[in-house]
Amino acid sequence: MKRLVLTSILLLGRYAVLPLVGLAGGLLFIWLLALDHSTRFVLATAPIMFCVIAAAVALALGILFVPARRDRSNVLDEATAPALWRIWRELDPAFAKPRRSLRFDADFNASIGEARSYAGIFRQHVTMTVGLPLLMILDERAIRATIAHEVAHAELRHITGSGNLFDFLRACENVLHYANPDRTITGRIAAFLLRAVLEWVNREYRALSRQNELAADRRAAALMGPAEMARSLVLIAGGAARLRELVFAPLETDMLGAISVPATPLERISTQLAAIRDHDALAAAAAKTMDEEPMEDPDSTHPPLRASLANLGYATLPAVDPIEAPAIAQLLPPDAARDLAARLDAEWRKLAQTRVRLDG
Ligand SMILES: [Zn+2]
């Protein structure tokens, strides 16, 4: 039953709230019919019915006004990043330029998402986001494997499901926009129910998302070979652990009690680049992650490294080729790389400035 509800949410998106609206309509109909027979019952239940109707109207309105999800900031057009676009085109059998956008951000990660135009009826637009640190630390081979993994998510329609889930959650949250929980009883009840629903849906979704990750890896492995995919998984796990150790932990310490904004994460990555990319340390960090990670983490959207490697046929951590030249030098023109880093640094400084000021 739970899976059925989740499946319909993933298929229908925001329209998955329609059965609830229908149910409320049905209740209203029965209630109006009862008006002839037992006036006392109708009067006694009137406050409940008004709440139900208000909630149904709010839900129905919520469907229409779900905010657009397409993030148009930090776009990487084809003139800026021709090599990245070329890799995407090579690996994506459904590639269609007008329906593809490429973005960059400051994460050591890549992701893919989908947005539809008004009310979610029109064609999907796929946006892939590649983190600048990923390009700075990994090599072109690992970036290719990562892009193949993201394309597999799109091919297997995982992103349609997550897009629909996102729409559904936003449509539900919209209820509170029309029925204020601080001022109306309907809103208070809706907020209470909503919290329960959101918690449940999110938990189920994280479990599904972990399965999707494994499915995307298998699909990408059919194209790139399991060894290449396993290599990228090991390098990303090791790289993430090294980044935590060499960049983010010291940054946290520096932020505490800082009176001026410390060096940005990207500046720190540049300074520590050789240490982060050091093969032996990185492989050791990946091995440590593999040993320490729990076998099943209900809070994570990603499976542990051990499960991802087992999925590709590796029972133990495979020995992988060291990282070659940083992908950024091959995939982005030097001016563009500098410019993108400067933009991310400026964004980060602006956020950090408020935090330093608040703490100080
Ligand atoms: Zn993924």
From TrEMBL:
Keyword terms of this UniProt record: Cell membrane, Hydrolase, Membrane, Metal-binding, Metalloprotease, Protease, Transmembrane, Transmembrane helix, Zinc
Record-annotated membrane-spanning stretches: 12-35, 41-66
Listed cofactors: Zn(2+)
Cofactor annotation remark: Binds 1 zinc ion per subunit.
The UniProt record lists the keyword Nucleotide-binding: no
Pfam families listed in its UniProt record: Peptidase_M48
Bilayer disposition of the protein: Multi-pass membrane protein
One GO MF term attached to the UniProt entry: metallopeptidase activity
Peptidase M48 domain: residues covered: 101-306
Name this protein carries in UniProt: M48 family metalloprotease
UniProt organism field: Bradyrhizobium aeschynomenes
Taxonomic lineage: Bacteria, Pseudomonadati, Pseudomonadota, Alphaproteobacteria, Hyphomicrobiales
